[in-house]
């Protein structure tokens, strides 16, 4: 780690440093490469300049680059003073390293512009940077990174692997790094903040989704995790709308000393924040609340493997649980394996009492998040290959999950974590074919569909050069061919235009069923009802009774999705201990969330009809902002849905069988 003396360095350079610049030096023509952060590409032109042949002497230790004074000429502005940076010979730098440095600085400059739109107490900026190339015929080109010369006190506020300035700690640099993570949607972070005042240079970008970009200093999610390990939430972060990053109470994170934030704010006061309005704070907080799960999961691995000292299993467990709360699929898979005793790469030595119901809960959350291994495991539970008391086999649900895997078969081929039986497309198709051939457990037998799937499985096996398996699938298809040709097509009852609008769709859930009459009567009783009216209590009680009866009728008719919708309405009527019924209309989903009823609703769907899509809907609407995509849904007219974390759903999983 850099020493404090090396972090805060006075560049003994002032504007007068250029007074002795040898203007008589020969001007040279350089090719200039400027990065356009908006277009995400370099553009090229030529400039004239003069560069000294000897380096500047600076006191910053550990430097990997040499600095040269330079003047660049413009027909509009005369000439400007620049610093040209070149890697020292021992670095063995490549052309790409110079371009990566320039790209990072210009990307950071663009993010700084977005940060400044919040109108924080201190605005920030990065020096404009470009690469110059000296082309000499017959020789290899030479490169430099150039930026305007600035004078003043140079301070390094953070490093690229977790270092955070302690001696001269400030609020703005670290709030900016956290903001950059949020701005990128959790895929990038700008660190290694250094410069003069709030004019910075030479940043490092850690990028998760494009590890090949931003040079060798791009540590990806490891670099982001190391920053958050030493990062402290400060009053400026709170004003922006950022949320604290949870630290393990048992790890060395807990020993981070408290800082005097008023002193750290330097030339402005913490009290000034209360006078400044940030209209983006709410939306930033909402976005921030859903991010960072993958970072917590990476920290768990780093703690477990002893990256920060001795292996720390307690901190690793803490961060895996934090990641699961934030919906990280890998963390949920990890905990699913913990509770069913399956080997895993993270929390390898963590042992708990087996709890298959809780394990299934984690598998389901991971599957809903799109984890391929989890999707396959959930399909196996519904098929009956794996068993647990909380899940009754449902071929219909198994086929739904296998179909999701078929849709993702291109991704499956690259997933080395899945076993061969699970990720090979032909095996998934063959499993689906067998289920349709057998039928039952909620799935209508269909020889025609099985015939089609066996043929698809054979074709997929042939593509993988598995001729024996292909022949086996073709034989199975041949056995079903005659029956498939004579099979009547599935009935498609005609529906009216009004009824067709009430069918299940991806983005909207509308119900219809035998309880609709009672439900309509209950809705009529409650429509426009004044809670203080003399008849209010009686109407509430009657409506509650009607909803309850409607639920029973719909359950008996195996209309699981209809039962859930009615149950939601029923649960907006809260019965007190004294038998009094009151309506919680404005906060209907908050009541559901507080009582874990959304999980019960999902359980009813599973137990009654195995309707996995409706089950996913209930879990989704309990923790997502449903206003975005069910704006016209009747359940949404009374008010907004309350959020509920995935971890709370898992804790309430035992209610599913209730």
Task: Give a written overview of the molecule.
It is a single chain. The radius of gyration is 32 Å and the shape is elongated. The two termini are 56 Å apart. The chain has a 6-stranded antiparallel barrel with strand order 2-3-4-5-8-7. A 5-stranded mixed beta sheet has the order 1-9-11-12-6. Mean pLDDT is 75; it is low at 1-16, 416-421, 492-522, 574-601, 603-617 and 621-658. It is built from 26 helices and 15 strands. With 658 residues, the protein is an alpha+beta fold. Helix 16 (425-438) runs antiparallel to helix 17 and helix 24 (597-608) runs antiparallel to helix 25 (612-623). A hairpin with a 3-residue loop joins strand 4 (65-74) and strand 5 (78-87). The longest helix is centred in the N-terminal third of the chain and has 22 residues, at 95-116.
Helix and strand layout, with pairings?
Blueprint lengths: L3 H4 E3 L17 E9 L4 E11 L13 E10 L3 E10 L7 H22 L8 E2 L2 E6 L7 E7 L4 E4 L15 H12 L4 E4 L2 E3 L2 E2 L3 E4 L12 H11 L4 H6 L20 H4 L16 H8 L4 H12 L8 H13 L3 H12 L15 H13 L3 H12 L11 H13 L1 H4 L7 H4 L1 H14 L8 H17 L3 H20 L10 H4 L15 H11 L9 H21 L3 H12 L1 E3 L5 E3 L4 H7 L2 H12 L3 H12 L22 H6 L7
Parallel strand pairs: 6-12
Antiparallel strand pairs: 1-9, 2-3, 2-7, 3-4, 4-5, 5-8, 7-8, 9-11, 10-13, 11-12, 14-15
Helix pairs in contact: 2-3, 4-8, 8-9, 9-10, 10-11, 11-12, 12-13, 13-16, 16-17, 17-18, 20-21, 21-22, 22-24, 24-25
